[in-house]
Amino acid sequence: MHERHAPAVHRFVYRHFTLRLPLSQLAGLRVPLLGINRRGLMAVHERDHGPRDGSPLLPWIRAQLARNGLAEIADGEVILQTLPRLFGYVFNPVSFWFCHDSQGALRAVLAEVSNTFGGHHNYLVAHPDGRVIGPDDEIAARKLFHVSPFLDVQGTYRFRFRERGGFLFVAIDHADDAGETVLSTRMSGRLQPLTGRSLLRAWLSSPLLTFAVIGRIHWQALRLLVKRVPFVGARPSSRPATAPEASSIPVAESST
Fold first, then answer.
1. Phi and psi at residue 124, in whole multiples of 5°?
2. Helix (H) or strand (E) run with residue 12 in it
3. Could you count the other beta carbons within 10 Å of the beta carbon of residue 191?
4. What is the 3-class SS of 43-58, one letter each residue?
5. Count of C-beta atoms within a 10 Å radius of residue 112
6. Which residues touch 164 (CB under 8 Å, ≥6 apart)?
7. Where do the segments described as Disordered lie (predicted)?
8. Alpha-carbon gap, residue 223 to 146, rounded angstroms
9. Residue 230: which residues within 8 A CB-CB, separation 6 or more?
10. If 0-12 CB within 10 Å is exposed, 13-18 middle and 19+ buried, where does residue 98 land?
11. Looking at beta carbons, which pairs linking 50-57 to residues 24 or more positions away fall under 8 Å?
């Protein structure tokens, strides 16, 4: 769900599915219909994430956690939540890397954001004191990357993550520099075992999933133009993420 609050109200809801993959098991994962670094009806390629060079993802995220002083507390499983390639094509507006401690508690989340101009940026968020991220906790990070040509690169993202009773919920609110919420985004769904049968059901429910994502982005952009929402620009420059903020830990990589 996306809901824009200003300068015009604009809301839409779409049904889709994502995969949640434990990175410690990725290399040996064998699920019918799903290819890992190979072709399949659905596929997940390591070159689509992290350093985007095809290298293993787990050492990369461990290095990002260590760089930001989180390696000792986020020393457990890392789960990548992402859209799969479908018939070889994928566009991921955002993938989430859920970083847990050895007891299974959530300690950090990396939000891997992509725009339609080929750019990528990572927001690594955690509590400044490293405590467990609770279901009602809100963690803020400065917006540093251009996503929508209808929004300036300014303001703050406010993240919330909740997993309870097999139900997953992610909220991202974008507030402007005055603190007013201009955009609300929600993702929610029920967890299911990753099997060939569940993948087939998911595909049948959204047979053109990744193609539909990019199509819907442009359709909603057209609707915003009709509503006369100001067009900021096709590709404004974004500021690099360099230093931690008081309430977030942005990963120390520049946007590309």
1. -100, 115
2. strand 10-12
3. 11
4. EECHHHCCCCCCCCHH
5. 22
6. 135
7. 234-256
8. 20
9. 7, 150
10. buried
11. 50/112, 52/120, 56/26, 56/27, 57/23, 57/26
Which of 40, 56, 53, 98 lies closest to 74 in space, CA to CA?
98
Q: How far apart are the first and last CA of the chain?
A: 27
What is the identity of the amino acid at 177? Answer: D
Q: Tell me, rounded to whole angstroms, the distance of Cα 163 from its chain centroid.
A: 16
Please give the model's pTM, rounded to 2 decimal places.
Answer: 0.89
Q: Which tokens sit at 225?
A: 């133009």
- On whether the CB atoms of residues 45 and 85 are closer than 8 A, the answer is yes
Q: Which residue has the tokens 């060079």?
A: 53
- Residue 188: what are its φ and ψ, rounded to 5°? -150, 155
86 φ/ψ angles, rounded to the nearest 5 degrees: -125, 120
Q: Write phi, then psi, for 111 (nearest 5 degrees).
A: -100, 115
Backbone angles phi and psi of 22, in degrees to 5: -70, 120
What is d(CA 153, CA 171) in angstroms, rounded to the nearest whole number? Answer: 19
Strands 94-100 and 181-190 turn out to be unpaired
Q: Does residue 240 contact residue 254 with C-beta atoms inside 8 Å?
A: yes
Q: What tens-digit pLDDT sequence spans the chain (256 residues)?
A: 999 998 889 999 999 999 999 999 999 999 999 999 999 899 999 999 999 999 999 999 999 999 999 999 999 999 999 999 999 999 999 999 999 999 999 999 999 999 988 999 999 999 999 999 999 999 999 999 999 888 889 999 999 999 998 999 999 999 999 999 999 999 999 999 999 999 999 999 999 998 999 999 888 888 888 888 887 765 544 443 333 333 444 443 333 3
